Amino acid sequence: MSMNRIARNLLPLTALCVVFVSCGSYLNVLKTGDNERIYQMALQMFQEKQNDKAIALFTNIERYYEGTARDDTIRFFTAVSQFRRGDFFTSGELLEAFRRNFIGRTTFMEEAEFLIAMGSYFESPDPRLDQTMTQRAIVQFHEFLARYPGTTKYEDIMEYLGELQQKLYDKSFQNAKVYYDIGNYPSAIHAFKLALAEYPESNRREEILYYLTKSAYILAENSIESLQRGRYLEMIDHYYDLISDFPETKYLDESRGMYDKVMILIADPQEGVEEVEVIETE
């Protein structure tokens, strides 16, 4: 058997031995009660990103070093280890406590405040769900930029903010679209108007104006005669908003067809017109 093959066969065993030695060393140090050794081992585990071990070691000595020059390091590294584990709730609580207790007396404050916002960013859910955490992350990132205007993280934060803002745009649109999909056109019109008022800069503005136009059209068409004229006029207003903001909108043909029909009906309500083909657009 060649030496290379022997070496390859020994590699898994060697790695296993390293694991056992590491575990044994970790447990032995933890049992000694020697706070200095535990602290040094905790730093080693933290550097190696062995987060569970780092947390256990730091937690074991945090009271001993409370109020000392090592206090902020232990508290911050414990929070970071929780963050690395993906426990953003626990890390967020630890980092908030860190911010309250060490403001003005630690070199870790900028990183701590950034991780607070990042935890909220990672907990921000799909647009179909409640967006409270998304809004919290946006506020936290803006507060961070206000406190640290020269931060090297600026470009990354702006990218994160764009992703979070998009979720709010999508959520606002989807909330209104639900009413449209179930045929509740008065509520759809109200919700689409709210979406425009809340986020006039939304990149879903074209869709919102289209669905406003179409919802108003369908509502007017199915209204009693005494309400039709006013509702058709509202539909025309929405149509003008759509083509004014998006003169080459992908919805132009369908929207223009509805508009032409409405203009005939308003000019002569008794005039019969052919049904306009409505093309469903997602």
Question: What would your notes on this structure say?
Answer:
The longest helix is centred in the first third of the chain and has 30 residues, at 3-32. Helix 2 runs antiparallel to helix 3 (51-61), helix 6 (109-123) packs antiparallel against helix 7 (132-147) and helix 8 runs antiparallel to helix 9. The protein is mainly α and 282 residues long. The chain has a domain at 204-282. It contains twelve helices and no strands.
The major β-sheet equals:
none
Described by the principal axes of the CA atoms, the overall outline is rod-shaped
Could you spell the SSE succession in H and E letters? HHHHHHHHHHHH
| SSE class | mainly alpha
**Tally of DSSP helical segments:** 12
Strands, total number:
0
| Unreliable residue runs | 1-21, 272-279
Measured between the Cα atoms of the first and last residue, the distance is 66 Å
> Would you tell me the overall average pLDDT?
89
Strand composition percent: under 5%
Radius of gyration: 31 Å
Approximate helicity band:
over 70%
